[in-house]
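Limitations

Structures in this collection are predictions, not experimental determinations, and the ligand pose is part of the prediction. Treat each record accordingly. The example that follows, with zinc ion as the small molecule, is included so readers can see exactly what is and is not provided: the inputs are given verbatim, and the output is the predicted complex.
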Amino acid sequence: MKALFKSTAEPGLTLAEAPIPEPDVNDVLIKVIKTSICGTDLHIYNWDPWARRTIRPPMIIGHEFVGRVATVGSNVKGFQPGALVTGEGHLVCGHCRNCLAGRRHLCKETRGVGVNRDGAFAEYLAIPASNVWHADPSIATDIISCFDPLGNAVHTALTYDLLGEDVLITGAGPIGCMAAAVARHAGARHIVVTDINPYRLDLARKLGATEVVNPEEESIAETVRRLGMKEGFDVGLEMSGNSRALNDMIGSMFHGGKIALLGILESNTAIDWNKVIFNGLTLRGIYGRQMYETWYKMTVMIQTGLDISPLITHHFHYTEFAQAFALMRSGRSGKIILDWADDQEA
Ligand code: NAD
Ligand code: ZN
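Predicted complex:
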């Protein structure tokens, strides 16, 4: 099969032949139809300090995908060849306290598909059946290929009650934009999204932001005044990983407001702790998605009108991966999809 490898410890990726993975007794072998490119894949492509610390070449990368079941291991029940599936990219240990309690998203031994082991940017992927999600075939495969990052957006956005609340989202990357759509669907009032990239702010508006702010041009405080909000945001969703954005958020919250942190910050990021303390803020870190309550919620929200399709801005054949990654790096894209199907499967 063809697969996209991080083949050596340097920037770039290599398209090469690889053996079709042999599914273990508990695995499902999936014929990949589409994959989408995540910020993590770009870090791996660029070979930045995080990637250098984390990735062990040679390895097939990628973890956002949709495909069809090809074969299943002898222990696997409930998956038939041809079924439309996607999958959870976090492989959990199954033995730690959280796994045993059913809180698998908090497993202390999580390993990432396409990060710590071979991934989905290939014609075939084998993962444990416990990581495979039956996709609703009435949902477009473009959308299903984005279920992993949509899951980040949904898990973060639904951390706190949003009905009637004023929500601040910092960072209009794909996940921030999807979170805006989820907040809209969940009944928030004002959904203010910030970014320093005008292309991304346009996308946020298309996805359901009621107001967008470029903090290099206008302060969040001015926006709050313009909207007639009196006491700041009830809920903050930090989705930029930028320290200034986080500090802007902490300074813009209602007393007693709640913040969910998804963006990955520099480990030495400083905040004004006295604002957290005197304003009674709650901060919660978010990793991954809940297995599988988030997957259920994503599915039913899409079935009831959540539309993230404006976020999918580009398609490429997998052989055009270099162009796709260059575009991703430019910041002038939403989600970019790589097509892997050899037939006309859409
Ligand atoms: P992204 O990099 O595409 O988006 C981040 C956005 O933040 C960019 O559009 C950037 O222009 C914007 N930004 C930069 N400085 C800003 C500022 N001062 N104010 C407002 N916006 C600013 O990332 P993404 O794929 O949308 O993911 C969002 C974040 O979540 C990233 O930090 C990513 O690493 C992280 N992430 C975390 C998890 C997890 O499990 N915790 C999972 C996936 C992604
Ligand atoms: Zn565990």
